[in-house]
Design a protein that fits this description.
The structure holds 2 protein chains of 2 kinds. By secondary structure, chain A is mainly α. Chain A is built from 11 helices and no strands. Classes of the chains: A mainly alpha, B alpha/beta.
Chain lengths: ~240, ~300
């Protein structure tokens, strides 16, 4: 039933994120059709697609949660008061945390599937005829995007342990934009630029294993830190 | 196995250097209705949060059912056997009454559908109504229903009647007594409403500045505590040194009010031995005991 509670808690956020993720497709379909031709396609800067990755990085941030809300910075009376009821249930804090984190990650991965669909729509609108290999590329893009997004997701999870949702949302957004700027501008950090890695299968036609590994490592560290805080924290 | 459902020994807790509990000793016997009294900030809610394992003590220990309250795995067993009504009465606003009952039921294998149905009807709770649309009083009732229906051995209630109208308060108090009598549950409740505590509690603890200042059976306290009024023929020039047991003495002109908690007869004899003094003896209410201790502290 913790899944059910998690779903009821996040369902409007999920709907909002679906609308957010579908928005580029709607925008593309609403624009007058123009065939840009092969030259325009070749000139498509990688940086532009990276921005596309940044756009979809909002999804994991928005859906992250730790299962136990804090009352410390209560914005609206009653918003997080139910935390004491949650903690009075005969379940471990680990289970509360794990259920909510798994649900949010699942929702993130599902919604991120809209990103390759957007690429697909762009390709079709550009007059391309995607073949089987392109489908695999899109699949690789989705997997890479999801794995790299896990680092951002667990940053959101960690912040949700001690920040209330509205504050966390803003802190996350600024954090990710700052990270994007930092990774894009500092050449030394280029190898760990997860935003570039997210879209790299579309250009390199292979998985960025190193970046994916780093993302999973960062996600694991952030997740374990969040779990440790949940288990030792006083409420 | 201890006879105490709740035991705390020298419990201390501070927040940012401010002491909230300063060595609380508490013993709550099984099957009792235990009133936990104190002013705002006296340490009631901190104690309850420590018992629920939400806080860790700086020193001392808290046992519930003989299990350490702060221990993560023991905490699950403790919470399985107790029902908790929080101070703010907040539940998930996005669930309906029916949904939260179904949700809570899933965690308790011994859930009593008969009690659930009984209290749904008694508290007049509409199953389809969203919790966000319920008044605080209705949420109090719903929380109590959730706490009772899983056949809890111990109910910890933080200000359970807050926000209820007088009729609902009476209903709830009656039900609490019935739960203790019929289900054998121990009820530990904090309250500001001294009349309510006096109405149903069989044991009380008054907490002030983080420590218990009075604790015991309500009947014993009422027998033990006596108010004496000594009226002298003329105004006293110097304060009288009263014998042991004269806990609080207030002198006003020719009249001296004494709250005695032991050696009452000796104090009466001492007063009667004074020239021109007459002594009257009054029974004390819980409110008087409370006010005397809290004010003097």
């Amino acid at each position: 039933m913790l899944w059910y509670k998690g779903w009821l808690e996040t369902r409007f956020g999920v709907l909002f994120m679906i609308a957010f993720a579908v928005f580029p497709i709607a925008l593309i379909l609403a624009m007058p059709h123009a065939n840009p031709g092969p030259q325009a396609s070749a000139a498509q800067p990688e940086g532009g697609v990276q921005f596309f990755a940044l756009y979809y990085s909002i999804v994991p941030l928005f859906l992250a949660g730790s299962g136990i809300k804090t009352q410390s910075a209560q914005i609206k009376k009653g918003l997080h008061g139910s935390m004491y009821f949650t903690l009075s249930l005969p379940v471990s804090r680990f289970r509360l945390f794990a259920t909510r984190v798994a649900l949010g990650m699942l929702q993130t991965v599902v919604i991120l599937a809209i990103a390759p669909c957007t690429i697909w729509v762009i390709a079709i609108r550009s007059g391309a005829r995607p073949d089987r290999q392109d489908l695999f590329l899109l699949f690789a893009f989705w997997v890479t995007l999801s794995v790299c997004a896990s680092a951002i997701y667990f940053l959101g999870v960690l912040l949700s342990v001690f920040l209330d949702d509205p504050i966390r949302g803003m802190a996350n957004m600024f954090g990710v934009v700052f990270l994007y700027g930092l990774l894009s501008k500092v050449p030394l950090l280029a190898p760990v630029n997860i935003f570039r890695a997210m879209v790299s299968p579309l250009f390199t036609r292979s998985f960025p294993w190193a970046s994916m590994g780093i993302s999973l490592g960062v996600a694991a560290v952030l997740g374990l830190a969040a779990l440790r805080m949940v288990q030792t924290r006083e409420y | 196995m201890s006879d105490w459902v709740i035991e705390t020994h020298g419990l201390r807790k501070s927040f940012k250097g401010q002491p909230a509990l300063t060595g609380l000793n508490l013993e709550v016997p099984a099957g009792s209705i235990f009133g936990f009294l104190g002013r705002n900030g006296a340490g009631k809610t901190t104690t309850i949060r420590l018992l629920m394992g939400l806080l860790k003590p700086d020193s001392g220990n808290a046992l519930v059912f003989g299990l350490p309250a702060g221990d993560l795995s023991a905490g699950i067993e403790i919470r399985r056997r107790l029902g908790f009504v929080t101070e703010d009465k907040e539940l998930y606003p996005y669930m309906s009454v029916e949904q939260i009952i179904r949700f809570t039921r899933s965690f308790f294998p011994k859930w009593r559908v008969d009690l659930e149905q009984r209290y749904l009807k008694l508290f007049d709770l509409p199953p389809g109504r969203k919790i966000s649309d319920l008044s605080k009083g209705m949420r109090s009732k719903l929380m109590l229903l959730l706490a009772i229906s899983h056949a809890a051995e111990l109910l910890i209630l933080d200000e359970p009647t807050e926000g209820l109208d007088p009729v609902a308060v009476e209903d709830m108090l009656r039900e609490l007594v019935a739960i203790a009598a019929n289900e054998g549950a121990t009820i530990f409740f904090s309250s500001h409403q001294l009349e309510e505590v006096e109405q149903i509690a069989d044991r009380v603890c008054i907490i002030d500045h983080g420590a218990a200042v009075v604790t015991g059976s309500l009947d014993d306290l009422k027998t033990q505590y006596q108010r004496l009024r000594v009226v002298f023929g003329e105004e006293l020039r110097a304060p009288v040194q009263w014998g042991e047991g004269a806990e609080h003495v207030r002198q006003n002109g020719r009249t001296v009010d004494i709250l005695a908690n032991r050696n009452v007869e000796a104090i009466i004899n001492q007063a009667q031995a004074m020239p021109g003094a007459s002594v009257e003896r009054f029974p004390v209410t819980l409110k008087e005991i409370f006010l005397e201790h809290v004010r003097s502290n």
